[in-house]
Give the backbone structure.
Amino acid sequence: MLNYILRRLALIVPTIIGISICAFAFVRVLPGDPILAMAGQHGVTPERYEILREQFGYNLPIWQQYFNYLGGILQGNFGVSLATKRPVITEFMTLFPATIELALVAMFLAVIIGIPAGIFAAVKRGSWFDQLTMGVALTGYSMPIFWWGLLLIIFFSGYLGWTPVSGRIALSFFLRPITGFMLVDTLLYGNWAAFVSALRHLILPAVVLGTIPLAVIARQTRSAMLEILGEDYVRTAKAKGMSPRRVINVHALRNALIPVVTTIGLQIGLLMGGAILTETIFSWPGIGKWMIDSIAKRDYVVVQSGLLLIALIVMAVNLIVDVLYAVINPRIRVQ
Amino acid sequence: MKLMTTLLAASAMLALAAGAAQAKQLVFCSEASPAHFDPGPTTGGNDFDASSRTIYNRLVEFEKGGTAIEPGLAESWSTSEDGKEITFKLRPGVKFHTTSYFTPTRDLNADDVIFSFERQWKEDNAWFAYLDGLTWDYFQGMDMPRYIKEIVKVDDLTVKFVLNEPNAPMIANLAMDFASIVSKEYADQLAASGDLAAFSTQPVGTGPFVFADYQLDTVIRYQAFPDYWAGKQPIDDLIFAITTDPSVRAQRLLAGECDIMAYPAPADIAQLQGNENLVVQEQEGLNIGYMSYNTTEPPFDNVNVRKALSMAVDKAAIIEAVYQGAGQDAKNLIPPTMWSYNNNIPADTYDPEAAKKLLEEAGVTGLTTDLWAMPVSRPYNPNAQRVAELIQADWAAIGVTANIVSYEWTEYRERGKQPDRKGPFQIGWTGDNGDPDNFFATLFSCSAIGVSNYSSWCNQEFEDLIQKAKTTADQAERTALYEKAQEVFKAEEPALTLAHSKVFMPMNKRVINYKMDPLGIHRFDGVDVTE
């Protein structure tokens, strides 16, 4: 097992280098000049432009810029935002809990709805429920997030007035973050009304962000379940007179969930991508919105380091999922 | 002990949260996060809304809802006979904010004023580069280093600006956001503690509101300053709820989550106007959308060709299709709300036949040109691509072929200002300080070629007029000079003046005394809410 983990860790190093090159190159092929963007409407004199280029190291050869950047990262220095002049890592740490909170709740919704729906659809294969579930899943999977989010806001917040339009908590609550997780912080303050407000603010963005993973998980669960239900040992169990409920719970479900765990792990990466749009629509102050705002401001430092930090998180999550997978499925370890 | 502090802090928070429910609160749904809270080096309207207009004051101020200058931290000022010295008398007893991180021991004095400018000006000032990559764009952009010779402390409450040459717009410039007065005492305290960066994140000013808290990209909280020199504000708490998407801002306003919002999307205006709980204020923007001909490029170097091309454009159709009623035809470079506007200038006529004839007379046939369209929507031109398409069709009717060109926004401006650019270039401007010089000299002076004079137009007569107006103190005389300059501009047609846009400000009916600002700033001093 330890061997397996070490092998996986060793793979991470070249991946990080690859991603850092991609992120670095990506922001340099983006149109726009960060120095000009910084200077704003009035423009900047050629002399001042040169001074700034030098100050930010943009005058160096491109490979040297890359090594300076990589060197900084190895020392834990992800650079300073061109717009706010604050360290990128500080901003990231401030905003990250909001994204995690949203992603966890979205994933929670996707799992508690997606898995039972998939199981039920498989067991009742071909029924109206099966067809409906798979139809909805397909629709959910192909839903453009931006449109879907605005639609829900207009209906549930605008028309019905059931949920708040955006933000993380009602503005009348003035709570300084302790952990950064709003649900946790409101409870730490013992403020029940604030907790309810935070929960209400979470519903719509979590539904929007959870839609695609929910669809994927439901479909994956259904097909894994169908496969298992066709296996000999399940038929044997049935033939021996085991109750259908027991067959599903004891024999089929445990085995069917193995690939679903992998799917969930892979969805974490997709959630980060989805968070960029969802957070923008709902003014959710997480790293997704931060990235979009930074691209708009041509804040190259934030974009390249933000991409790398997100990639690191996704890799860490995938590693954990793979290890868990190896724990429940011993066959994987010897491969 | 630690538990004790935590409990104390928690109960203080609870008290604050509970107290907030009774306090008079105004929530502004703003459009973007501020870079930080030091108005000196920032350039965005959203930065100024969050800093200079809430937390700070300037020596002189724009009147609310207008561009006239009124006393601010300076009670009065006088200009010397030769126009080279401006002496400001400071208001006595002006307090700086007391916050959790700073307690002032003295009132505002001349040292604060000198520090506020020298930090932007003198490279040997310890605060000149207190943040990485800091630039003082407005101080540089308004050419302050060229105009200011020195700033002298006469006594604690008297400051003298010594200029290199007379400069009439200087007073208006000093009402701009970059000229906000900061506390030298606070700066000294931070310098002593070594935490210079806090100057931008934990601001201290003399303004109507005290900075309370900022949660990155989410919410900014302010409280009314009880010792404000002009009296405490009617509202207790001012909250900026940062909401980047315009449709979501509109939904928040409709849902009552905010009281007032910035920059509605044109598509949402009708719905907002139709809501009985809301009021939608509107105002002519202090702006101009125009199209610069490159006057050094044949055949655009021929004034008759420029006139013919302008004459062939159906501006009324463009304003209707693109501005959708939220704009008005521009016959001059400056908007009609600005002093010195020359209303005697005849409006542009749309006459394709005459245009054709004029082109023939100039010997121009089968002209093919680039036509530049901005990639972004700006207040002065909501959809430059669409405008370009309409102009393209109009020009096709007189035998001119236009190929539409566009680049990413910063690159677009960079390429556009090159003196050898090919083809007419769409651009525009929103005024900074209400002075005509901010339009004429910034956009069409000879020295602005390669910077913001996208026509590369250097006309001696025009130049003499605007330079003379700049160094003249008498406003009537300046008006006459600018009126004449507008005649020259019209006769030479270096650019097609397209439209001045309308700006909308939707708000809840409970908001009272909000006045729209022609400079596009959002000000909440004096604003009240009904219970």
Notes: Chain A has a mean pLDDT of 85. Residues 214 and 254 of chain A are 19 Å apart (CA to CA).
